[in-house]
Amino acid sequence: MERPCAIVILTGAGISAESGIATFRGPGGLWEGHRVEDVCTPEALAADPALVHRFYDRRRAGLAEVAPNAAHAALARLDRHWPGELLIVTQNVDDLHERAGARRLLHMHGELMSALCAACGARAPHPGPLPPGECCAACGAAALRPDIVFFGEFPYRMDRIEAALTACDLFVSIGTSGAVYPAAGFVAQAAAYGARTLELNLEPSAGSRRFSETRLGPASRLVPEWVEELLQSTQSSPMSR
Ligand code: APR
Questions:
Q1: 204 lines ligand 1 (CB under 6 A)
Q2: Which of helix, strand or coil describes residue 11?
Q3: Residue in 119, 162, 114 with CA at minimum distance from that of residue 141
Q4: How far apart are the CA of 99 and the centre of ligand 1, in A?
Q5: 90 lines ligand 1 (CB under 6 A)
Q6: What is the Cα 153 distance to its own chain's centre?
Q7: Closest Cα partner for 146 from 29, 60, 17, 234?
Q8: N or C: which terminus of the chain carries fewer CB neighbours within 10 A?
Q9: pTM, full prediction
Q10: Which residue of the set 72, 107, 109, 126 is catalytic?
Q11: SS3 215
């Protein structure tokens, strides 16, 4: 019997835009009011921890005001019903994928709802405000910081992600500008190992021409349509490499 195709899905800020979370780049983007190097680098954290912690406290508190949209719900549905390998890799630090019900999920750039100990590396759920100097439950050091992968730091779980990219049959990128590596390079990696590649985005991203297919429009429409198409196709003929 043919195996169902293995899928890797990369999501970015565009999938949460219709939930009311600002994207990073472009007019009204999160980086428009802030210089990235003032809030999202290890140097910024060392120079002004209060400012950096406040910035992420505000973003964490903002999560209470938003809810998953139809695109998050569709991916959670796919996760529940897809019989083959599936991995959702998100660059987003919000928790909308898991609130929609997705389980096969990795946060490569960290999570707002988590704290990281700068002393021992322990990561632990932290839903409330995180002032500088809070103590780590694992080692006791007063070294908790937002569990966010800053520019210049290594994204999480790259070994697992790279293994999935080399083994997948279909790579789908949703709502990301393709401006930040290593995520921007995933399409080329997956294609080099023989995967079909699909982009779902509001506008062509920086790497659009690298995809086998691009569909343009809002994620809340494109993602449910694509998920429906995929689940229907398995009922008639299972896809495989
Ligand atoms: N539906 C689909 N796509 C959308 C929508 C929407 N409703 N709204 C916006 N987009 C698209 C934009 O056209 C853009 O291509 O989402 C993309 C968002 O791009 P960015 O703001 O650059 O966000 P992202 O690609 O996730 O950024 C990557 O950069 O600063 C860092 O660490 C941060 O994880 C982030 C990384």
A1: no
A2: strand
A3: 119
A4: 20
A5: no
A6: 16
A7: 60
A8: N
A9: 0.95
A10: 109
A11: strand
